[in-house]
Amino acid sequence: MRKIMIFDTTLRDGEQAPGATLTPQQKIVIARQLAKQGVDVIEPGFPISSPGDFAAVEQISREITGVEICGFARAVKGDIDAAVKATRDAERRRLHMFLSSSSIHLDFQLRKSREQAIAMAREMVAYGKQFVDRIEFSPMDATRTGDEFLFEMIEAVIAEGATIINIPDTVGYALPDEYGAMFTRVMQNVRGSDRVEFSAHCHNDLGLAVANSLAAIKAGVSQVEVTVNGVGERAGNCSMEELVMALETRGNAMGAVTGIRTEEIFATSQMVSRAMSFPIAFNKPVVGRNAFQHEAGIHQDGLLKNRNTYEIMDPERLGVPRSMIILGKHSGRHAIRHRVSELGVELTDEQMEDFYASFKSLADSQKVVHDHQLMQLIGDAVNRVMEPYTLVSTQLVTGTAGHRVASCTIRSEATGEEKTYTGTGEGPVEAVVAGIKQALPFAVEFADLELYSLSSGEEASGEAIVTVRRDGASYRGIAAHRDILMAAAHAFMAACNQAAREAGEGQEQAEQAQVRIS
């Protein structure tokens, strides 16, 4: 099994995606997580591009150990000087230099002849070699260059001391068989190819970045350049999590492995998504919201009997905290009864029939039935209150200046008592959360909020997913509402109720409520 080096360029090529700009501090935090995850090389930025990028590369070089730090540069002395200076304190470092090689780039962008391009490549690699032993060279747009000139350029930079040859599919043009065959031809025909390492860098314009990278591995490359969540120019780069899990799952067929700690994949994905404000598509492989969730009754039945029936990866090994069963109109009795039992309730056959009919009616009117709604339906079936706390009403005062003020009325189902609490905050969600927290006899931390639009137009509904932490454990609540602030408020209340139930407080309060009602 060959070890494939994972070269992460999230902080350089990934950040070049429109709107993905990161602050230097965000880059440092993500670089720490990438090192924790086990990447082999980090390309932290483009030092010549801005003082902030230079400072981020410099600090990451000083702080992050155990990985190789790569300085990125055009084949220009000023770029090389900046990259060398920014990475001078790195424990291990390399210089990554690129120069266009295709005719369309040389003719219309650089306006250089092929002879001039070869001379530039030779001169700049030789210049960089004075400062750095490990030099990676990328002939940009290699897949549209043509063999003869590509071979000539690669031979020239190897002769001047390049140690890693990266052959990029810069515009995502290649097909997998073409890309793999290109590496084979280079390795067989370029003088000095036996003295260098080979790397693949693929863009995803045709959705083939992962497939092309796997083809390159089959052809013998020892390094693949990736980004977290596949972020990057245009349609993005080869997705780290997809490539890693393809090798993890089909390693025997590929004859290759990586050193990535898969349990960190989800945490890294979420960190980059939030820092860049780039939401992850629900159907994104490996880390998407639906990647390990199932609504169809046939699938749910198979999963409950043996998870391997419909899942080829274990989400827990990726750090994915998702429930595999999602209840909706396609769900069957088996999955519904299973979820009800997970909530600590056993229904009689008669109660189950009443509950099932109510469930199907609700499921026909919305996409997904969430746990707090299940608890309400269960309560109707067994004639008792199931949730310890109910958000009765919320009033919010907001404006263009000053703090927001929220008035939240909460009912304790154990006592039947309703109390109103006032919370303030710089934002409306902060104010509502502050108000609800006052009603709880335990401390919770508001950890995360996701908001999604469920439809379009003025009558659109919003879905909120709120994660809270209590005593080190995480709990998630989901709610939908025409008012997105109410969706967030109900989702927060649902998460807090879940925290109370799993601590045993919910059952105790439900029993007290039943006594009171009786």
How would you summarize the topology of this molecule?
Blueprint: E1 2-3, E2 5-8, H1 24-37, E3 41-42, H2 51-63, E4 68-74, H3 77-86, E5 93-100, H4 103-110, H5 114-129, E6 135-140, H6 147-159, E7 164-169, H7 176-189, E8 197-202, H8 209-219, E9 223-226, H9 240-249, H10 251-254, E10 256-257, H11 265-276, H12 297-305, H13 333-342, H14 349-365, H15 371-382, E11 389-397, E12 404-412, E13 418-425, H16 428-437, E14 445-453, E15 462-470, E16 473-481, H17 484-502, H18 505-517
Average pLDDT number: 90
Could you tell me the radius of gyration in angstroms? 28 Å
The count of β-strands is 16
End-to-end Cα distance, whole Å, is 67 Å
Shape-level CATH architecture of the largest domain: Alpha-Beta Barrel
Helix content: 40-55%
**Uncertain regions spanning at least 5 consecutive residues:** none
* Content-based structural category: alpha/beta
Q: Which of globular, elongated, flat, extended, rod-shaped describes the shape?
A: elongated
Q: What proportion strand?
A: 15-25%
Strand order of the largest sheet: 2-3-4-5-6-7-8-9
Write out the CATH superfamily name of the largest domain: Aldolase class I
Which topology of the largest domain does CATH recognise? TIM Barrel
Number of domains: 3
Number of helices: 18
Q: For the report, how would you describe the main beta sheet? A: 8 strands, parallel, barrel
**The CATH top-level class label of the largest domain:** Alpha Beta
Pfam families: HCS_D2 (PF22617), HMGL-like (PF00682), LeuA_dimer (PF08502)
GO molecular function: 2-isopropylmalate synthase activity; metal ion binding
Keywords: Amino-acid biosynthesis, Branched-chain amino acid biosynthesis, Leucine biosynthesis, Manganese, Metal-binding, Transferase
Family: Belongs to the alpha-IPM synthase/homocitrate synthase family. LeuA type 1 subfamily.
